[in-house]
Amino acid sequence: MTQIIAAASALISERGFWGVSVQDVANACGITDAGVLHHVGTKEGLLVAVLEHRDDADLAVLSQMLGIPVSALREGGELSTSLRDFCAALVARNAQQPEIVRLYSVLNAESLDPQHPAHAYFVAREKWATELFASAAAGTSDPARVARQIFAGMDGLQLHWLRTMDFDLVHEWAALAESIIRPFEVSTSTNGHSA
């Protein structure tokens, strides 16, 4: 199954979901299309397996990097880390795996079509991710707005990075994050009231 997911991930990141057949994945693995379908059921099942594998792997690494249980990342709620640290860990993880970021970006764009088999997945994932960012932004004046801007900024910067690969993603993210987060930070005066 690991070989099937790896082959499907590579092919989908190059061609998009619609440009890949089950036979393409089977050929890449040296097995029959029936062998692929035995593990995933359908082409749509293959896509779900690829996306779930990516999520599981990323959450496990983020959990280790931040010292947060995977369950806290999956379920949301208040995170025991700063927004800057959370985002920095996520970008550092993505900088190590451009092929996976490319896969996610291609599928995310394709799934804007409500008929795409990953449409519901990406709608739910965006809602979950935005809520997770908002949880990490709890100390700001407008956590929901910060979360949306962080999410949009991160996606946009990663797309530019994937296209050119001519800058340090982690370094550029730190500068962009500062410009997004700082205006929303709540400063406290000596009397304890927000400034």
UniProtKB/TrEMBL annotation:
Keyword DNA-binding on this protein? yes
* A GO molecular function held by the record: transcription cis-regulatory region binding
Give the UniProt keywords, A-Z.
Answer: DNA-binding, Transcription, Transcription regulation
Q: Which ranges of the sequence are annotated as binding DNA?
A: 21-40
Listed InterPro entries: Homeodomain-like_sf, HTH-type_TetR-like_transc_reg, HTH_TetR, Tet_transcr_reg_TetR-rel_C_sf
Every copy of the HTH tetR-type domain together lies at 1-58
Q: Does the keyword Glycoprotein apply?
A: no
PROSITE patterns (alphabetical): HTH_TETR_2
The protein's name is TetR/AcrR family transcriptional regulator
